[in-house]
Amino acid sequence: MLRALADVLGPDDRVLVVDDRSPDGTGRIAERLATELPFVDVLHREHKEGLGPAYLAGFRQALAGGAELILEMDCDFSHDPLDVVRLIDAAGAADLVLGSRYVDGGAIRDCGVVRRFVSFSGSLYARLLLGTPLRDLTGGFKCFHRRVLETIDLNAVHSKGYAFQIEVTYRALSAGFRVVEVPITFVDRTRGGSKMSRTIVLEAIWRVPFLRAAALSGRL
Q: What is the DSSP letter of 219?
């Protein structure tokens, strides 16, 4: 994955791998690659707190390093590294760009029926309750302008699982930022396992109406 990104990065671009003490050795592999690839940095976190806190730690490090555009993506080839350029290009006319599976031209490949249903129904549930036309609110392939992450108050983002993806996008929308979707093809991972759990699903179920209520009351 990291070697594939080398073909699309500019001379000043960096890749940050966030490792939450992954039991599969991700951190060790990332450290080895960081010695071979000069554009790679690794952030090790002592405790496994969930997807949301890991992304927030990565965002803060990228902002501290002066990044103007911050992208998030999976590192298991579910997201095509070549699509990085397309998201960056779209950021020329938007504040936040979502790589979307559910707009025209988007697709999901090699995923089972259950996973497709959970993903699609989660996005539909969030879209209806939050009243937004965005179609892929649960996706994890995004490109932020730094002004978005500086404005939405990262300390106020408390979602730990996949609700995190919904929350940061909705906070950006509520702050008045322009959010657009570009079609991507999502491919199921060939190694590793899903981190989906009952706790993560339940968090998304209650967190979405909480966000809507907070926005309507002016507390978001």
A: -
pLDDT in tens, 165-199: 999 999 999 999 999 999 999 998 655 555 667 78
Residue 39 and residue 9 in contact, taking contact as beta carbons nearer than 8 Å = yes
Neighbours of 196 (CB within 10 A): 15
- Reported as a single tens digit per residue, the pLDDT across 16-57 is 999 987 777 788 888 998 999 999 999 999 878 888 999 999
Fold of 2-216: Spore Coat Polysaccharide Biosynthesis Protein SpsA; Chain A (3.90.550)
In terms of DSSP bridges, do strands 15-19 and 40-44 run parallel, antiparallel, or are they unpaired?
parallel
State pTM to two decimals. 0.91
Helices (H), 102-187: 113-130, 146-151, 163-174
**Nearest residue to 4 (alpha-carbon basis) of 78, 105, 100:** 78
Please state whether beta strands 142-145 and 96-100 pair in parallel, antiparallel, or not at all (unpaired). Answer: antiparallel
